[in-house]
Specification:
The protein has helices at 4-14, 58-61, 153-161, 200-210, 225-235, 255-261, 296-314, 367-370; strands at 20-24, 37-38, 48-49, 53-56, 66-74, 88-92, 104-107, 111-113, 118-121, 131-132, 143-145, 166-170, 175-180, 184-185, 196-197, 215-221, 240-244, 265-268, 273-274, 280-284, 287-292, 325-329, 333-335, 340-350, 353-358, 375-379, 382-384, 389-394. By secondary structure, the protein is an alpha/beta fold. A six-stranded mixed beta sheet has the order 7-4-6-5-9-8. Strand 20 (280-284) and strand 21 form a beta hairpin. It is elongated. The structure holds adenosine monophosphate and magnesium ion.
Length: 397
């Protein structure tokens, strides 16, 4: 049985990065740039006032208080027509171009009116010129964002500033989600004897939404080979197929057999971890396929540790599986058995860093307990004292 780290390494190695597409600016949020982006202009495009006040010659105000003549008013968007000469100034607003001759903006708080078209400069601070110089952020033609950079709302602001209505990004995968199990009923129904509601096709679609990819739900396949074959084959039309359930050792766990029949290459089928041991990873051409354990917590753990990084790899993220954080356990823990335990925990911070607080759950079917967690502590078998430093994977990034 392979370790979780080996499993992740195999997943990332076998998962392709998708091709690039042109996308409208807002569609790029959550995606990664496939090409570097250069600025088409200097930023800022002109010497710009950073404050509301008076554009002056620093030499004129060195001996403040002094009085100056106001020769022009410059709201944002208005180009100056006059040059500031000794003894003169311009009233200027934040964002307006600084007129020629001026090399400082005195903030309005450091001034008072001194009659018609005159102002008294009460104080000047030579270190606070309050001018953003043309091109000081970036020069025209220089790279503002490298290829591979993930687009967040911050980058959208920058891309808009450099005039990009569209950008070249790595394509997002199309994901198919398939639940399996004879016991599953739609969530609109009250389960009868032996039945449970299908939680996983919903939680997995939600995971996809959070990861910035669209998922199609293929419904529920029953535990017979014909139904599984038909629905899994349909799912193989997508870039990613997520099958929940039917992968453990039971007599009705037919998913691996059907994968085999359909000619997908299975790379591993068990991982030395708890929960999530019967996690299957397969590929077919450029497609990736996961068979996820049916227990609702196990499915979500396997999603976080393996599917999410794979989807990020497809989308061109330079760092598809960010490293876990380190934190101090708030309570002693003993992990038995031979598998790495991914323990539901709460991550909090105190003055000396992250703390990792175990969350009581009743195991891999207990979504009630799991919903109180926001991270998974990675615990190899052994005994851990309160205060021991452990690694933890945040559930939401
Ligand atoms: P399996 O992996 O098919 O052996 O399922 C393991 C456990 O997970 C069983 O108790 C199933 O009833 C449950 N399970 C399987 N699929 C789902 C699902 N889509 N939603 C909620 N529970 C499920
Ligand atoms: Mg099942």
């Amino acid at each position: 049985m392979i370790t979780p780290n080996e499993a992740l390494r195999i997943v990332l190695e076998k998962t392709p990065r998708l091709e690039t597409v042109e996308a409208p600016l807002l569609d790029a949020v959550g995606a990664c740039l496939a090409q570097p982006v250069a600025s088409d202009i200097d930023l800022p495009p002109f010497d710009k006032s950073a404050m509301d006040g008076y554009a002056v010659r620093a030499a004129d105000v060195a001996a403040a208080p002094v009085e100056l003549e106001i020769i022009e008013e410059l709201p944002a968007g208005v180009a100056p027509t006059k040059t500031i000469t000794p003894g003169t100034c311009a009233k200027i607003m934040t964002g307006a171009p600084v007129p020629a001759g001026a090399d400082m903006v005195v903030i309005v708080e450091d001034t008072e009116p001194a009659g018609d078209d005159r102002v008294r400069i009460l104080a000047a601070h030579p270190d606070s010129r309050n001018i953003c110089a043309c091109g000081e952020d970036i020069r025209k033609g220089r790279t503002v964002l490298d290829a591979g950079h993930a687009v967040r709302p911050l980058e959208v602001g920058l891309l808009a500033s450099v005039g990009r209505e569209g950008v070249n990004i790595y394509r997002r995968p199309r994901v198919a989600v398939l639940a399996t199990g004879n016991e599953l009923v739609p969530i609109t129904e009250t389960p009868g004897p032996g039945e449970i509601r299908d939680a996983n096709s919903w939680s997995l679609q939600a995971c996809c939404l959070r990861a910035g990819v669209e998922a199609d739900c293929l419904g529920v396949a029953r535990d017979n080979e014909d139904d599984l074959r038909e629905k899994i084959a349909a799912g193989l039309q997508r870039d990613v197929l997520l099958v929940s359930g039917g992968v453990s050792m039971g007599e009705w766990d037919l998913v691996p057999k059907v994968f085999d029949e359909l000619g997908v290459a299975v790379h591993f089928a068990t991982i030395r971890m708890k929960p999530g041991k019967p996690t299957v990873f397969a590929t077919q051409g450029g497609r990736i396929i996961f068979g996820l354990p049916g227990n609702p917590v196990s499915t979500l753990v396997a999603w976080r540790l393996f599917v999410w990084p794979a989807i990020r790899k497809m989308m061109g993220h330079p760092d598809p599986a960010p490293p876990p954080v380190h934190g101090r356990l708030t309570a002693p823990v003993t992990v038995g058995g031979k598998r790495t335990f991914f323990m539901p925990t709460r991550l909090r911070s105190d003055r000396s860093g992250w703390t990792v607080e175990p969350v009581a759950t009743r195991g891999s079917a207990d979504l009630v307990g799991f919903c109180r967690a926001d991270a998974l502590a990675i615990l190899d078998p052994g005994t851990y004292d309160a205060g021991a430093t452990v690694q933890a994977v945040p559930l939401e990034l």
